[in-house]
Design goal:
single chain; about 250 residues; elongated; four-stranded mixed sheet; 2 domains; five-stranded mixed barrel; OB fold (Dihydrolipoamide Acetyltransferase, E2P); alpha+beta
Length: about 250
């Protein structure tokens, strides 16, 4: 049976001399493993479409154990991302997140759309890189079922408090009164940080280019929600984040 679907290559693992096993995040199929025979050869017509980050139209043959690549027609190869080390590191972080949370054969159309539009805007340099990371991370959490509750106190329901913290395990805000009644790891969140996080959770990608945010506020949200993400995904080692941190520090 042949299946036609859009997809983005997450990985291309060498198999034998010129074959590859692709990990593809597809709109219709979710994450799938695809045998790409001859796709690593310089003479292959599938070479361009089999590269990581390439967004393509795929024709796949469903076999007993995995799919086989029948045809791939690149829509956008994202080559320009490879020319900017910062942008490539961020795109690699997006790949790590998607690869970590997606399940073989389980589609997630909203996450797929987020992935496609984020890579495109990142390549076009639309907006600050830190905002790209935060928007993707917050909407990724939302579309993956890990959305933090940021509309008020997760315990008593109040929307007013002089101070707020995010309960990292429970995934919700706690007002000043309820903070002592709920054990577990908590991180302070400013009122401005909460408003920005809620905004980034719903903002369209086109509006990101006009958004200007103080670096201190960006750092606050980055530290809180990266930690939150690691706890809920049960994964602390992100090679792309480590590399991006080294770039920012100038090694």
């Amino acid at each position: 049976m042949l299946v036609k679907t859009e997809g983005i290559v997450l990985k291309n693992m060498k198999y034998k001399e010129s074959d590859g096993i692709l990990t593809v995040f597809a709109r219709k199929l979710g994450k799938v493993s695809v045998m790409a025979r001859g796709a690593r050869s310089s003479k292959s017509q599938h070479l361009a479409g089999a590269q990581p980050l390439c967004y393509s139209d795929f024709v796949l043959y469903k076999g007993k154990s995995m799919y086989t690549l029948n045809n791939v027609d690149p829509i956008h190869n994202h080559y320009k991302l490879r020319e900017d080390l910062d942008a490539l590191s961020i795109a690699s972080f997006f790949i790590e997140l998607v690869d970590t949370v997606t399940i073989e054969g389980q589609s997630n159309n909203r996450l797929f759309t987020l992935f496609v539009e984020s890579l495109g805007a990142l390549e076009r340099k639309e907006g600050e890189y830190a905002l790209h990371i935060l928007r993707f991370l917050l909407q990724f959490l939302k579309f993956s079922g890990y959305e933090p509750y940021l509309k008020g106190c997760n315990q008593c329901g109040t929307g007013n408090s002089p101070q707020w913290v995010l309960n990292m395990e429970e995934g919700g805000l706690l007002c000043q009164r309820c903070q002592g009644e709920s054990p577990g790891l908590a991180k302070p969140l400013s009122k401005k940080g909460i408003r920005l996080a809620n905004f980034l959770m719903v903002i369209d990608i086109e509006d990101l280019r006009e958004l200007k945010v103080h670096p201190k506020l960006l750092k606050e949200l980055e530290e809180v929600f990266q930690r939150y993400m690691m706890i809920h995904l049960d994964k602390t080692n992100f090679k792309s984040l480590d590399f991006l941190s080294k770039i920012r520090k100038g090694y």
